[in-house]
Design a protein that fits this description.
alpha/beta, Rossmann fold, 6-stranded parallel β-sheet, 11 helices, 13% strand, globular, binds thiamine diphosphate, binds magnesium ion
Length: 364
């Protein structure tokens, strides 16, 4: 654990240790947020280099977000920030299964997507600082990351708003006879929105090449899924409108990757839209840099469960089982920190966009 002084309270960042302390390894409890998942996917022989790639990507997201939390009290980052600590395996597992040319749409909680798709750290931190070398030229901030060069076509702060845009892109791909697949990432809160069902209906009607990825962290701000839906098995509810799919735990990157590969293959072959509901857990406050894993809106036991299912811990453990040494894992951590140092220094020096740039890239 690494304590860091935040604006209002001490933030505790959880280490990426593979073996949680004994106090956290007591008898497993039923998942406090999500009902049971459909059976796990069989992941055939993942190569060790691929597992390293997963870990590197997970680590990049975790350490970048930790850096954002540390920088936030300086007010250099003016944009609201929605961190994805604890949810990293969703972005990494799905994005690693994509092909070049596929298009991805996300939400305001989009840091993981940008980095998992291979977005550069310099463009990332420059965007956090609203600088001109940012991936969105300093005009989007944390909530509106765009990087078409790696397939990230848009992220938006309006809940569910990218889903119809992604569906339109899938229609375009279908008309153009393109082989690209579209992936729309959204939270459980988006399943409360009418436009989600309109989009799903249209995608089913036209058999569009789109994968819907429901990142179910159990909460929309502080409201639990069960307080908003009469049924909490959302993938089954959506099967009722014809959207086939499966639910699985989204913290094991190997499982997410396996499920995404299978789903993407089917969508690419023209079988129509599919849903992946990936259950996970947010460790930090809905918006802002503080850890609120102890937040009063959470149920007792949630924290212990979350710490046991740390996406980085799970992946690190898998690597150690395959003979990786702690030394090599720690060296990767140190290298990533240095790369982040350089990216932050670059972002500090980058200029703010000038007045002349304000209307560039804006639809009029
Ligand atoms: C259309 C719309 N309604 C309400 C809000 C306010 N709001 C911001 S985030 C959020 C919760 C979304 O939860 P979820 O989709 O589960 O995503 P998470 O934050 O858990 O990643 C709400 C209601 C909004 N941004 N847009
Ligand atoms: Mg949510």
């Amino acid at each position: 654990m690494e304590p860091v002084k935040g604006r209002r309270e001490t933030i505790v960042f959880i280490s990426v240790s593979p073996n949680p302390p004994k106090s956290q390894t007591s008898a497993p409890r039923a998942h406090p947020v999500h009902p049971p998942a459909t059976p796990p996917v069989r992941v055939r022989s993942l190569s060790t280099p691929l597992l390293w790639r997963f870990y590197e990507s997970l680590l990049r997201i975790r350490l970048s977000e930790q850096r954002i939390s540390r920088l936030y009290p300086t007010d250099k980052i003016q944009s609201p920030i929605h961190l994805s600590t604890g949810q990293e395996a969703v972005s990494v597992g799905v994005c690693q299964a994509l092909r070049k040319g596929d298009h991805v749409y996300g939400t305001y909680r989009g840091h993981g997507l940008y980095l998992a798709l291979g977005g550069g750290l310099k463009g990332f931190f420059a965007e956090m600082f609203a600088k001109t070398h940012g991936c969105s030229h300093g005009k989007g901030g944390s909530m509106h990351l765009v990087a078409p060069e790696v397939g990230l076509m848009g992220c938006s702060a309006i809940v569910a708003s990218m889903i119809p845009v992604a569906t339109g892109d899938a229609l375009a791909a279908s008309i153009q006879g393109s082989s690209r697949v579209i992936v729309a990432f959204f939270g459980d809160g988006a399943v409360d929105a009418g436009v989600f069902y309109e989009s799903v209906n249209f995608a089913l009607l036209k058999k569009l090449p789109i994968l819907f990825v429901l990142e179910n962290n159990g909460y929309a701000v502080h409201s639990k899924v069960a307080e908003r839906h009469s049924r909490t098995d959302l993938h089954r509810v959506l099967a009722g409108v014809g959207l086939r799919g499966r639910r699985l735990e989204g913290n094991d990157v190997r499982q997410v990757y396996g499920a995404a590969q299978e789903a993407l293959r089917s969508v690419r072959q023209g079988a129509g839209p599919l849903l992946l509901e990936l259950t996970t857990y947010r460790w930090q406050e809905h918006v802002g840099p503080q850890s609120d894993i102890d937040g009063s809106y959470r149920r007792p036991g949630e924290k212990a469960r979350a710490l046991r299912r740390d996406p980085l811990g799970i992946c690190r453990h898998a690597l150690l089982e395959r003979g990786a040494t702690s030394r090599r894992l720690d060296a990767l951590c140190a290298r990533t920190e240095s790369e982040i140092d350089r990216a932050v220094a670059f972002a500090e020096k980058s200029p703010f966009p000038g007045v002349g740039q304000l209307l560039r890239g804006v639809y009029r």
